[in-house]
Design goal:
The chain is an alpha/beta fold. The chain is 38% helix and 27% strand. It has 12 helices and 14 strands. It has a 6-stranded mixed sheet, sandwiched between helices. Strands 2-1-4-5 form a 4-stranded antiparallel sheet, covered by helices on one side. A 4-stranded antiparallel sheet has the order 12-13-11-14, covered by helices on one side. Helix 6 links the parallel strand 7 and strand 8. Helix 3 packs across helix 4 and helix 5 runs parallel beside helix 6 (166-181). It is elongated, with a radius of gyration of 24 Å. The two termini are 21 Å apart. Bound molecules: adenosine-5'-diphosphate (ADP) and magnesium ion. Adenosine-5'-diphosphate binds next to helix 1.
Length: 311
């Protein structure tokens, strides 16, 4: 395990921000911590990266206890935004070289590392351009590069794409993906379901400082409910007949749509095709709809007994 968090509590002036948080992240994987504003994401990242002390529980990162072995942890992690002090007047490459020197790399090593990282994040062509001319996405990628100067085992990204436009977000996603190949363990927090879905091997959904659910995106989706078969008819006159033949479908008369839950999506599709064909009912569309992560999020963060759902 690259990260192990057990029963962590953190209170700010008596008010709990983390209330028994548990989290395990395997080496070389991407873990998303997903949660609404105020869920405790930043608090958790600050504790895991030794910037903040927790009140109770045990946190180990890269094989070391964050409380008793903080310097060893710090030597093995990177944190996005830690080096937010990019020099606007300098080029991207000069900034990275400077961070390398600040992190005790020799001049030659710092230069090589800067070039490697510019390459990795698609900034090689713009390495000489002053940072003040960078787009939001380029700047965030340069931030990412800076947090990787020391080749950390574990990288923490606290809402890495917040405030970026869709293009910048896509650029950062592809930068994060290219890290994974290199074996770095990444923990990223996000409020964006799509981001967790796109990037993470596993997702921990937190709400009010504790885990509401944990699993792969698919596992989380199946928590909310079954897949649904959705069929759209051509002819309004056949709607009532189709509703009798299919297994207790929900019917939307305006859009001529019938839908019903299935355990087995392929069997559900086959059944629907057979029923329609035998009755000579024409469909204009037939699809399986999976629950979306948005539905998972709303479903789980809406309920007070969310912790039980995960159990
Ligand atoms: N420095 C602080 N002092 C007091 N309360 C804080 C502080 N930082 C965070 N909180 C509170 O702790 C809870 C969790 O905050 P945070 O970890 O920032 O959540 P997130 O990053 O998920 O939005 C919130 O209720 C927030 O108001
Ligand atoms: Mg936060």
């Amino acid at each position: 395990m690259a990260i192990s968090v057990e029963g962590v509590h953190k209170r700010y002036g008596g008010k709990p921000a983390l209330a028994g948080l548990d989290l395990e992240v395997k080496s070389g994987t991407v873990q998303a911590v997903l949660g609404p504003n105020g869920a405790g994401k930043t608090t958790a990242v600050r504790i895991m990266s030794t910037l903040l002390r927790h009140d109770e529980g045990v946190v180990r990162v890269a094989g070391h206890d964050v409380r008793t072995q903080a310097p060893a942890v710090r030597a093995r992690i990177g944190l996005l935004g830690q080096h937010a002090a990019l020099d606007e007047g300098l080029g991207g490459r000069q900034n990275l070289e400077m961070f390398g020197r600040l992190n005790h790399l020799g001049a030659r090593r710092a230069g090589l590392r800067a070039d490697e990282l510019l390459d990795l994040f698609g900034l090689a062509d713009t390495g000489r351009k002053p940072v003040k001319q960078y787009s939001g996405g380029m700047r965030r990628r340069l931030d990412l590069a800076a947090s990787l100067i020391t080749e950390p085992e574990v990288l923490f990204l606290d809402e890495p794409t917040t405030g970026l436009d869709p293009r910048g977000r896509a650029e950062v996603w592809s930068a994060v993906r290219s890290l994974v190949g290199g074996g770095t363990t990444v923990l990223l927090t996000t409020q964006y379901l799509e981001e967790a879905d796109q990037l993470a091997d596993r997702i921990t959904l937190i709400d009010a400082g504790r885990v509401a659910a944990e699993g792969t995106a698919d596992e989380l989706k199946s928590l909310v409910g079954a897949d649904r078969i959705v069929v759209v008819l051509r002819d309004e006159a056949r709607l009532a007949q189709a509703a009798r033949l299919l297994p207790e479908p929900a019917v939307d008369a305006d859009s001529l749509t019938l839908s019903f839950p299935v355990e087995d999506r392929m069997a559900g599709l086959a059944l629907t095709l057979r029923v329609l064909e035998e009755a000579g009912i024409e469909a204009v569309d037939l699809a399986v709809r999976r629950p979306t992560l948005d539905e998972v999020f709303l479903h789980l963060t809406d309920r007070t007994d969310a912790a039980e759902v995960a159990a």
